[in-house]
Amino acid sequence: MLHPWFAEARLVAARGGAWRRGRTLLAAAAAAIALPLSLRAWGGDAAVLAEALPRLIERLPLPFGLLAIAVAYAVARGRSIALDEYLRLGWWAAAPIEPSRATRSLILLAGLATLAAMAFAAAVLAACGGDRASLHAAYWVVDGGLALGAMLGLFAALRHRRHPAHRLREGARLPVFGLAWLDDARLPHLSDWQRREGVLRWRRGGHAWMIGAVLFGLPSSTGASSGIGVLLIAIALAWFSLILQACVAATLDADALLASTPRAPYRLAQAAWRYPGFAFVCAVAFVGIGAALLSLTWRAAPVLLAIMLVLSAPALLALRPVLHRSLSR
């Protein structure tokens, strides 16, 4: 019925691998539920602030519904395509497995993930509190948007498999500008690998939901310069966090590929920092232009850097195994 990858996933979960991979997500989910509960327990204006979210969703169903659809679509499509390509082109490619089993597995996983996301959204809204009518309306808007977006994302992922010409155009990994000077002689072409992985993820729409959330949150009275400034900051932060995730993924793959080769300590780290550093400089430059258009002072710099650090935290935490091995040598 299902792909044997499920048996492999159960073994990984039984050995604690699922907890190690998902503890950051679980901590973020617990914090999202605990924050409105804490505001309500604080009382006063804090409780009113928490209860305002369901009422705001009830009054503005279209922006929040479109945002839920966009987020669910991006996540479902990206995760489904990644798993489908792993099952068909990865370690399971040589196994005599019917393609229909992989399709059923994708549909089942997408359904379970959608139900989990809907339950989480309902828990957050319930933690916010408020009158019953507003909560019910918010449930329908958010959960309906998540379900619709997940279905569209799964359909797009399955269609992605059936149209190789579209996949080749979408999967073009050649960057617009060649930056050969970023390559390090110690590990040549690692930065090029990082750039190609980043280009692929960006062209697939990675982190587009961040930009969409900012656009939906802009009031209609926003001026042209202010809107452009906010958009530049949002694009720079979303792009850098995505590029950093791509760089970390390529670095981890390179570390696994070269695990049996003799190399000096810190060699991988010394060769892998160049492109992320260049991307950080570019992102800071665009954030600076956006801050200038918004007439922000230097006091906004720590806040913007903190936002960048929070968005980059998952990628940086994924580097711990490599850093631990480098320090232990």
From TrEMBL:
Could you tell me the keywords of this UniProt record? Membrane, Transmembrane, Transmembrane helix
Which residue spans traverse the membrane? 59-76, 106-125, 137-158, 205-222, 228-252, 273-294, 300-319
Q: What is this protein called?
A: Transmembrane protein
Q: Does the keyword Secreted apply?
A: no
DNA-binding is among the record's keywords: no
Highest rank taxon of the organism: Bacteria
Organism field:
Lysobacter antibioticus
